[in-house]
Design goal:
Structural class of chain A: alpha/beta
Helix content of chain A: 25-40%
Number of strands of chain A: 10
Strand order of the largest sheet of chain A: 6-7-8-3-9-10
Number of domains of chain A: 1
CATH architecture of chain A: 3-Layer(aba) Sandwich
Largest sheet of chain A: 6 strands, mixed
CATH topology of chain A: Rossmann fold
Number of domains of chain B: 2
CATH class of chain A: Alpha Beta
Radius of gyration of chain B: 28 Å
Structural class of chain B: mainly alpha
Helix content of chain B: over 70%
Strand content of chain B: under 5%
Oligomer: heterodimer
């Protein structure tokens, strides 16, 4: 059990009477890359938002690192979010700040790092992902791929234990998807634990340690990419894969 | 291909637009503009300018002629546009106008502060701070509902009449206070609209990075909100510049009051026209500035849209 970073048990979440998550269970080990696949509306995004407390669950429990209960009433959500990074489909960079300020804002304000330290760390990260020359640009000068990579760097600057990627390539020009996926590949190679909701099946097959097929608010089928893509057991998984891989 | 005629880049004010060629063959210029087409556009721009001027001149002549032909015109000219009267009263008007400027300069920063604080108070979610939220909401409801001139009357005549110890009974003080309270309510709503205009995904992104609710407001939401409301704020400033004249009802000799005094002592209204000109002289630059800011923001936003 000590190797489990995230333990999700029996999570329910409804929006205005519509249940999006219906008693979902999922366990994520340290250094594991979990890819969530499934149709739109199957609960992928909602699950990720519940994990870092952007949505509160209706029932169930989410345990981070074996000690921090994300779903407990008295848990400080800011403390949870310091340990979990998330990147959204629409990059959500702060348009009034330069790339560098976007990246250093929360290390300075939340972790109370000195300005010099956070700039040094941010520049190292930007350098690593080929964005150093964009440090002083405003987000409106970036391409979609660059903006999304900055969003990833911004989340990484908080040194999270767990990264969540919510369909981060869905809003991108097809030509720019590759550079963003390269970034995720790099992070996976570095041993970061990550959960990624995506429609990029080829990428899922390549980086995932565990693929979960979500349907109607539960994990209907899970396993290694070979198992889920190679010989899916459930009829709905087969149908979904047949449609998306066509 | 080296056979492309390379046109000179035009930087004049004419409406010639430079077209970037979509297909960039190797050796092709960055920008190419067919000289015949360019000459045509330039000619048409010149013609449009001439026709516009001629039309405007014709309009002014016709309207001017029509007005000067009315039977009452000589009397109107004598009472409202009297040259010697203008020269006699104008310096005094300018002097009096300094008071309007002073009221404006004191009121404006206070309005911004009150507006921002009230806007923030109205969006408080903590149940403990409910009283603050209720007071802020009541303040906006009341001061937006009561005509500004009435607030000036009530404060300017009402509070000094209480004869409270240590409370000034100066008309300019209470007139300015009334303007601040009245405009503060409007500006609070402008700020609130600005806060609402910042997309919720920005707040979500900030919170997901571990920033507290307060930090999110301070570093992410408010800077964007304030930027978004600069044009409507400038609009309210312009309005305030004129409304400083309302303080005249309490008696202090500002621009409008001075004009009234001049007019009633000579039975000639030229001083009013002079006062109007002074107000216009201040509001027109402000209006142009607001237009310019708005145009610049639109341009920035459309640029951001293509990025």
């Amino acid at each position: 059990m000590t190797n489990t970073l995230l333990d999700i048990a029996g999570v329910w979440k409804a929006f205005e009477g519509n249940s999006v998550l219906r008693g979902l269970d999922l366990s994520v080990a340290r250094h594991e890359a979990v890819v969530l696949i499934g149709a739109s509306g199957s609960g992928k995004s909602t699950l990720l938002r519940c994990v870092n407390g952007l949505e509160t669950v209706d029932a169930g429990r989410i345990l981070l690192g074996g000690d921090l209960d994300v779903t407990a009433f008295k848990t400080d959500m800011d403390a949870v979010r310091r340990r979990i990074g998330i990147v959204f489909q629409s990059y959500n960079l702060f348009p009034h700040m330069t790339v560098l300020d976007n990246v250093t804002l929360s290390p300075r304000k939340v972790l109370k790092r000195s300005s010099a330290d956070s700039i040094e760390q941010a520049m190292a990260l930007l350098q690593r992902f080929g964005l150093a020359d964009k440090a002083n640009d405003y987000p409106d000068r970036l391409s979609g791929g660059q903006a999304q990579r900055v969003a990833i760097v911004r989340a990484l600057a908080m040194e999270p234990e767990l990264m969540l990627f919510d369909e981060i390539t869905s809003a991108l020009d097809p030509l720019l998807v590759g550079e963003v996926l390269d970034t995720v590949r790099d992070l996976k190679a570095g041993g970061l634990t990550l959960i990624m909701a995506t429609h990029e099946m080829g990428f899922a097959r390549e980086v995932a340690d565990q693929v979960c097929f979500l349907d109607a608010g539960v994990v209907l089928e899970k396993g290694t990419p070979e198992a889920v893509f190679g010989s899916p057991q459930e009829a709905k998984t087969q149908e979904f894969l047949a449609r998306i891989l066509k | 291909m080296s056979g492309w005629p390379v046109p000179r880049r035009r930087t004049s004010r004419s409406n010639v637009t430079l077209v970037t060629s979509a297909t960039t063959a190797p050796g092709a210029p960055e920008v190419y503009f067919d000289p015949v087409r360019q000459a045509f556009r330039r000619k048409r721009a010149r013609r449009d300018a001439l026709v516009g001027m001629a039309s405007l001149l014709g309009f002014v002549l016709v309207v001017g002629f029509a007005i000067s032909r009315t039977s009452g015109w000589p009397l109107v000219q004598e009472t409202f546009f009297n040259g010697s009267e203008f020269i006699a009263t104008f310096p005094g008007l300018l002097d009096a106008f300094l008071l309007n400027v002073r009221i404006f300069l004191i009121a404006e920063p206070l309005i911004l502060i009150i507006g921002l604080l009230v806007a923030l108070a109205r969006d408080l979610r903590s149940p403990l701070l409910l009283p603050l939220r209720v007071v802020a909401t009541l303040y906006v409801d009341i001061f937006r509902g009561v005509p500004t001139i009435l607030v000036i009357f009530l404060l300017g005549f009402g509070v000094p009449a209480l004869q409270l110890q240590g409370v000034p009974n100066n008309a300019v003080f209470w007139g300015t206070a009334a303007l601040v309270l009245s405009y503060g309510a409007y500006v609070a709503e402008v700020f609130r609209a600005g806060i609402g205009s910042v997309h919720s995904s920005q707040r979500m992104a900030a919170r997901s990075l571990g920033l507290t609710s307060m930090q999110t407001s301070r570093y992410v939401v408010l800077p964007q909100a304030v930027r978004n409301v600069i044009p409507p704020l400038l609009n309210d400033f312009i309005s305030l510049q004129k409304d400083t004249a309302l303080v005249s009802v309490l008696g202090p000799i500002e621009l409008l009051r001075q004009a009234q005094i001049d007019a009633s002592s000579t039975f000639n209204y030229t001083a009013y026209v002079g006062a109007a000109l002074i107000f216009i002289a201040l509001t027109i630059p402000m209006t142009r500035f607001a237009d310019w800011v708005q145009a610049r923001m639109r341009k920035r936003r459309s640029m951001a849209g293509t990025a």
